[in-house]
Design brief:
mainly beta, 5-stranded antiparallel sheet, 25% strand
């Protein structure tokens, strides 16, 4: 009886493999039981009486004001990270316009337990505008407060003292790596940049890709006079592969200033 069951199971496995191979030869994507978002034509052969439509954001209440003397109207590049107990929010503060990476730029921090009600803690790390009662986590470090972009490292190899990581910099400086145990107290990973060869003059995204089992960085470049995006990968956040420029199919070129690339949490592949 056991031999018959094993034989039947083996036949089912062979049949499944044959069906998968046939599907691939026929141009059908085998997704198994995975969840897949219908974002474009990648999974859809045809639409009959239906259409893909983007949802439109609806304005709601304001949850955070940039009203401190070191913040001002030129704040930007907000990053929100959800950990097990808290939401962490990071953004650039600069009260007056200036060159990218100027000395007045700082990196600010806010925290929330629900993602709606936010507090700006008085951290006391830097003296800004004559006071240490401020929410600044990085200052006096031009040009790195221009576009400081952190992430929570989900790699199984991430050490507790480097659970939070970040990249920041401009084309001239390259992208520097930063690490933190708590998302508040940060140190530079090393003096040399970890990634070079890009424009970097906006928000550059890094995350750990479980699907690819590596760190992935999407960063700003210029391509044929257009703002665009390149990507590189790393096994350890230090040594990075050569960059690959992203392609966008048979579409007209247009400026892509920030890319905001992240794995979709319901379908991280």
């Amino acid at each position: 009886m056991k031999r018959r069951s094993m034989t039947a199971l083996f036949c089912l496995m062979l049949a499944g493999a044959a069906l998968t191979a046939a599907a691939q030869e026929a141009g059908v994507l085998e997704i198994g039981s995975r969840l897949e978002p219908f974002l474009d034509a990648y999974l859809i052969e045809s639409l009959d009486g239906a259409a893909l439509t983007l949802h439109e954001p609806v304005p709601a209440e304001r949850v955070l004001y940039f009203d401190r003397p070191w913040e001002g109207r030129f704040c930007g590049y907000v990053t929100v990270i959800k950990t097990e107990r808290l939401y962490h929010l990071y953004y650039r503060g600069v009260p007056a316009a200036g060159n990218d990476g100027n000395a007045n730029e700082v990196t600010c921090y806010a925290v929330s337990v629900d993602g709606i009600n936010w507090a700006k803690p008085d951290l006391g790390i830097y003296e800004i505008h004559g006071t240490r009662k401020n929410n600044v986590i990085l200052a006096d470090s031009a040009p790195f407060s221009h576009n400081f972009c952190p992430f929570y490292d989900n790699s199984p190899k991430a050490s507790p003292d480097q659970q939070f990581k970040a990249v920041a910099g401009t084309g001239k400086s390259g992208l520097a790596g930063f690490v933190s145990p708590d998302g508040v107290h940060w140190s530079k990973l090393r003096d040399e940049p970890i990634i070079t060869g890009g424009a970097f003059d906006s928000q550059n995204l890094v995350f750990w890709s479980d699907t690819e089992q590596c760190y992935v960085c999407y960063f700003r470049i210029f391509s044929d006079g257009f703002r665009s995006v390149s990507r590189c990968t790393s096994p350890d956040f230090v040594q990075w592969s050569p960059a690959t420029e992203m392609s966008f199919g048979d579409t007209p070129r247009e400026h892509l200033y920030t890319n905001q690339t992240r794995p979709y949490f319901r379908a991280p592949h």
